[in-house]
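Example record

Each entry pairs one chain with its bound ligand, adenosine monophosphate.
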Amino acid sequence: MSSPAYQPDNIFAKILRGEMPCYKVFEDDVALAFMDIMPRGEGHTLVIPKTPARGLLDMPADALGPYMQRVQTVAAAAKAAMKADGLTIQQFNETAGGQVVFHLHFHILPRWDGVALKPPGTMGDKAALEANAARIRAAL
Ligand code: AMP
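Structure tokens for the complex follow.
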């Protein structure tokens, strides 16, 4: 079954157009990275492509490589900046797959030995989000 069409009124499209704020970590012509406002751990960062794709399956193949390079770059910076022991990288497709915002994104989650992820749905502390964004920016 094919994916539904991309909807340009989704919240990440609004962030890309500057209509909504974000705690920005990285931006170039290919991708934008910003802090997840309901972080499941310290340094939880999202990387979105500028290409309007709903999920992984409708992302044009020729845009995927450059986008994944940005995912890797931001992941390395998040791991270094947050002094993490490892990383969890997540990407969800469609409601059945756990997707809530229908603009392609990868979650970068710094991880520490013995530290579980927090449950989803709690707003992050503004000062901590700002501080973590600054730390990760500095490691890029
Ligand atoms: P999912 O589509 O399941 O990967 O989840 C979307 C993610 O986007 C969740 O982790 C939300 O906390 C996050 N999120 C939703 N709105 C915003 C926003 N305005 N800024 C940053 N993160 C957001």
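The mean pLDDT is 97.
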